[in-house]
C-alpha cells in the first residue's frame, strides 16, 4: 500500500561541490519505508501527484513558505514537513499560516524523523483514500443526478448541494435550498424519526430505506422513496449525508384512486381520511346524498350543518356551533376514534331537515408508509327506518286504542247511564228516607272515579303533544299502561306490581324512580311486552289461579331496573336470539302487528338496555334505564 505514496524530499545542502542528499541521515530513514521516494535539490513544478513533501533547506527563506502555500493550493490533500535549524516565534507563526503540517527543529534524531514521517504517511494514506472516495461520490452523484432526486448534506444537517431535478420538483432554485437545514423541506411528522433512529443507523454505517414526504414551495407534498447513507471518516464520524430519492407520488395517487374505487362500490355513505384524520375523499353515494357534484365541491362548500348526537337527555350538539361539511366530518371521525360517539347521529341542514345515521369506522395500513393508516368513516342512512318505526309506533297506538275502544266504551257507557239517569233522582228521593244513604251511593262514587281513571289513561296514552325528553316517573308509566290493557288482562291473568295485585284503583308512587324520557313511549314498551304475554296465556291451558305476570321496579343510585316475568311457557329457543329483530312478533289478529323491535328502539333512544330470557317456564324481560339526576 505504501508504494502508492509519492514522497518528494527537497534538500539544497552542498559541501565542496558535493550534494549531501545521498548522505543525509534523514533520507536514510525515509528509504526504510517501502514508498515511492524522490530526492531533489530544487522545487517541483507540479504538486498534484505528491502525497508528502519534505523541505530541508540550508537557509530558511520566504521562498520556503511560498512553496508550501503553492503546494496546498495545488493539492489540498498534500502533507508538508519543514526541517530547519532556524528558531523563532515569527517562523513558527508563518509556518502555521501557510499550513505546514510539521515544523522540525534541528538538531534532530533520526528516530524523531521516523515517527513524524510514519504519522504523516498514515495521514497521507487516509487523505488519499478519502480523496478517492470523494471522487467516486462525485462521479456517482453526477450519474444519479440525471435520474434521481439528490441532496448532499453536511454533518450539521445543512444542505451543501442539491440537483436540478429536485429543485424543479419542489419549485425552488438550487441556491434557495443550499445552506438551509434539510428537514425544512421534509413533512414535519417525519422529523423525530429522521433525527433519532435514522441518524443512529447512519452513524453505525447502515443505509436507510423508506418513504418520506417532501414539501414543495406551494405546500404540496411529494411522496419520495428515499435512500439515505452517510460518508464516515476514519473515526467513524459522519462527514457527509447523501439523500437519493425517487418520486413515487403517482404511485401514492394510484393507491388513493384504488381506495376510492373500493369505497365507491360500498352501499353506505363513505368518507376517506388520511393519518391526521383530514378528509381526502368521499364516495359517490355520499356526494349524491348531500347534493355535491364532486369532492372539490364538498371541500369548497360554505353550507353550514349541525350535527347532533342522541343521548338520554335528547339531542345533543356534537359541535358547539354550525360548521362546514368538511370540518364536521373531520371532527366526527376524531370523536369516533376517541370513543365519544356511539349509536346514531343526526345531521341537520339550514332548513332543519334531519337525516339519521349510524356511524362505523375502519382503518387500513398505508402500503407505502409504515405505521400510518388510512381511515374510512361509514354513514349508514337509517332515516327511512326511523320514520318507518315512528309510523309503526303511531299505527300501533291507533290499533291499541281501536282494539280497546269497544271495551272502554262499554265501561264508560254503563256508569254514565247509571249516573246520568238515576244518580240525582236517587239522591233526592233517598236523602231523608234511607238511613246511611252515603254508604249506598259509595259504589256510584267509585264508578265515577273508575270512569275518570280509564278516560284519563286513554287520553294520556293517545296524546299527540310534542315528544320531548323530560323527567318522568317510571312507576307512573307502568300504572298508566296497565290501566289501558286492564280490561283485557283482568280476564286472562292477575298482574302484580311490586308484589301487590293491580287494579284500577292502584295509584302510582309519586316518589318512585325518575328517568329522563318520553312517558308515552315508555308506556308503549310495557304494553307491547305485556300484550305479548297475554297472547301467550290465551294459547296455554293453565288455570287462572296459577297464572301470573309479576312486575318489579328496582332503583339504585344510577340505574332503574324494570323486570317483567310471566309463566306462559316462554319464548321458543329458535326465535329467542333474534327476538328484537324487526318482524311481526305474533299473529296480527292477536297482537298490534309490530314486533319487539319497536320496544327495543324506544329503550335504545332512551339510552337504556333491554334483554330477554326464559326462566321458570316463562319469559323474563329486563329493562334498564338511567336514573335522572338533577344538575347541581
What would you note in describing this structure?
By secondary structure, the protein is of the alpha+beta class. Helices cover 40% and strands 25% of the residues. It has 17 helices and 28 strands. The strands form 6 sheets. Strands 13, 14, 15, 16, 17, 18, 19 and 20 form an 8-stranded antiparallel beta sheet that branches. A hairpin with a 5-residue loop joins strand 10 and strand 11. Helix 13 crosses helix 14 (474-489). The protein is rod-shaped, with a radius of gyration of 48 Å.
Indicate the overall shape: rod-shaped
Global structural class? alpha+beta
Helical proportion? Answer: 40-55%
- How many H/I helical runs? 17
List the main descriptive attributes of the protein structure presented here:
alpha+beta, 6-stranded mixed β-sheet, 8-stranded antiparallel β-sheet, about 625 residues
Summarize the structure.
With 632 residues, this protein is α+β, with helices and mostly antiparallel strands.
Strand and helix layout:
Elements: E1 6-11, E2 14-15, E3 18-19, H1 25-31, E4 36-40, E5 52-56, H2 62-74, E6 79-84, H3 89-98, E7 102-105, H4 110-144, E8 149-154, E9 159-162, H5 164-170, H6 174-177, H7 191-203, E10 208-215, E11 221-232, E12 238-247, H8 249-264, E13 269-273, E14 279-282, H9 284-289, H10 295-300, E15 304-311, E16 314-317, E17 323-324, H11 325-338, E18 344-348, E19 354-365, E20 373-381, H12 383-430, H13 437-461, E21 470-473, H14 474-489, E22 495-497, E23 500-501, E24 514-517, H15 519-537, E25 549-555, E26 559-566, H16 573-576, H17 596-605, E27 609-614, E28 619-626
Parallel strand pairs: 1-4, 1-5, 5-6, 6-7, 22-25
Antiparallel strand pairs: 2-3, 8-9, 8-12, 10-11, 11-12, 13-14, 13-20, 15-16, 15-17, 15-18, 18-19, 19-20, 21-24, 22-23, 25-26, 26-28, 27-28
Helix pairs in contact: 1-4, 12-13, 13-14, 14-15, 15-17
Amino acid at each position: 500500500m505504501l508504494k502508492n505514496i509519492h514522497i518528494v524530499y527537497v534538500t539544497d545542502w552542498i559541501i565542496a561541490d558535493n550534494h549531501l542528499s545521498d548522505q543525509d541521515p534523514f533520507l536514510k530513514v525515509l528509504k526504510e519505508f517501502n514508498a515511492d521516494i524522490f530526492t531533489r535539490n530544487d522545487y517541483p513544478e507540479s504538486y498534484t501527484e505528491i502525497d508528502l513533501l519534505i523541505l530541508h533547506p540550508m537557509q530558511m527563506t520566504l521562498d520556503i513558505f511560498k512553496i508550501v502555500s503553492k503546494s496546498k493550493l495545488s493539492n489540498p490533500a498534500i502533507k508538508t514537513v519543514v526541517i530547519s535549524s532556524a528558531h523563532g516565534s515569527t517562523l513558527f507563526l508563518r509556518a502555521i499560516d501557510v499550513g505546514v503540517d510539521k515544523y522540525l527543529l534541528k538538531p534532530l534524531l533520526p528516530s524523531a524523523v521516523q515517527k513524524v514521517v510514519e504519522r504523516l504517511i498514515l495521514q497521507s494514506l487516509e487523505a488519499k483514500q478519502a480523496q478517492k472516495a470523494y471522487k467516486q461520490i462525485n462521479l456517482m452523484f453526477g450519474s444519479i443526478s440525471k435520474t434521481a432526486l439528490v441532496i448532499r448534506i453536511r454533518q450539521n444537517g445543512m444542505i451543501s448541494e442539491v440537483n436540478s431535478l429536485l429543485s424543479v420538483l419542489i419549485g425552488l432554485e438550487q441556491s434557495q435550498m443550499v445552506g438551509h437545514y434539510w428537514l425544512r423541506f421534509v413533512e414535519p411528522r417525519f422529523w423525530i424519526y429522521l433525527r433519532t433512529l435514522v441518524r443512529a443507523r447512519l452513524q453505525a454505517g447502515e443505509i436507510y430505506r423508506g418513504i418520506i414526504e417532501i414539501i414543495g414551495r406551494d405546500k404540496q407534498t411529494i411522496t419520495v422513496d428515499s435512500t439515505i447513507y452517510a460518508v464516515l471518516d476514519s473515526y467513524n464520524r459522519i462527514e457527509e449525508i447523501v439523500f437519493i430519492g425517487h418520486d413515487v407520488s403517482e404511485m401514492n395517487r394510484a393507491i388513493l384512486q384504488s381506495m376510492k374505487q373500493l369505497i365507491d362500490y360500498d352501499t353506505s355513505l363513505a368518507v376517506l381520511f388520511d393519518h391526521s384524520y383530514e378528509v381526502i375523499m368521499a364516495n359517490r353515494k355520499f356526494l349524491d346524498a348531500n347534493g355535491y357534484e364532486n369532492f372539490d365541491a364538498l371541500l369548497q362548500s360554505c353550507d353550514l350543518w349541525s350535527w347532533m348526537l342522541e343521548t338520554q337527555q335528547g339531542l345533543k350538539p356534537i359541535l358547539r356551533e354550525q360548521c362546514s361539511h368538511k370540518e364536521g366530518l373531520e371532527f366526527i371521525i376524531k370523536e369516533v376514534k376517541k370513543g365519544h360517539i356511539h349509536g346514531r347521529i343526526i345531521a341537520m341542514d339550514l332548513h332543519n331537515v334531519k337525516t339519521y345515521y349510524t356511524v362505523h369506522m375502519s382503518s387500513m395500513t398505508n402500503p407505502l408508509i409504515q405505521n400510518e393508516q388510512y381511515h374510512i368513516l361509514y354513514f349508514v342512512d337509517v332515516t327511512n327506518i326511523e320514520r318507518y318505526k315512528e309510523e309503526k309506533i303511531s299505527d300501533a297506538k291507533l290499533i291499541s286504542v281501536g282494539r280497546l275502544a269497544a271495551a272502554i266504551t262499554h265501561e264508560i257507557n254503563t256508569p254514565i247511564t247509571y249516573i246520568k239517569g238515576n244518580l240525582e233522582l236517587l239522591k233526592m228521593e233517598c236523602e231523608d228516607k234511607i238511613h246511611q244513604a252515603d254508604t249506598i251511593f259509595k259504589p256510584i262514587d267509585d264508578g265515577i272515579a273508575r270512569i275518570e281513571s280509564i278516560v284519563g289513561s286513554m287520553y294520556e296514552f293517545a296524546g299527540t303533544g310534542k315528544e320531548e325528553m323530560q323527567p318522568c316517573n317510571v312507576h307512573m308509566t307502568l300504572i298508566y299502561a296497565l290501566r289501558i290493557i286492564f280490561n283485557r288482562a283482568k280476564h286472562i291473568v292477575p298482574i302484580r306490581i311490586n308484589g301487590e295485585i293491580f287494579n284500577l284503583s292502584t295509584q302510582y308512587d309519586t316518589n318512585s324512580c325518575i328517568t329522563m324520557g318520553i312517558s308515552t313511549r315508555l308506556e308503549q314498551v310495557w304494553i307491547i311486552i305485556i300484550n305479548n304475554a297475554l297472547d301467550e296465556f290465551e294459547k296455554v291451558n293453565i288455570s287462572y289461579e296459577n297464572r301470573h305476570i309479576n312486575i318489579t321496579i328496582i332503583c339504585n343510585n344510577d340505574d332503574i331496573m324494570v323486570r317483567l316475568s310471566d309463566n306462559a311457557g316462554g319464548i321458543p329457543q329458535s326465535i329467542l336470539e333474534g327476538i328484537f329483530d324487526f318482524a311481526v312478533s305474533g299473529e296480527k289478529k292477536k297482537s298490534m302487528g309490530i314486533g319487539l323491535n319497536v320496544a327495543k328502539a324506544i329503550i335504545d333512544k332512551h339510552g337504556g338496555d333491554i334483554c330477554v330470557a326464559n326462566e321458570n317456564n316463562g319469559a323474563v324481560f329486563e329493562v334498564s334505564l338511567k336514573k335522572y339526576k338533577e344538575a347541581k
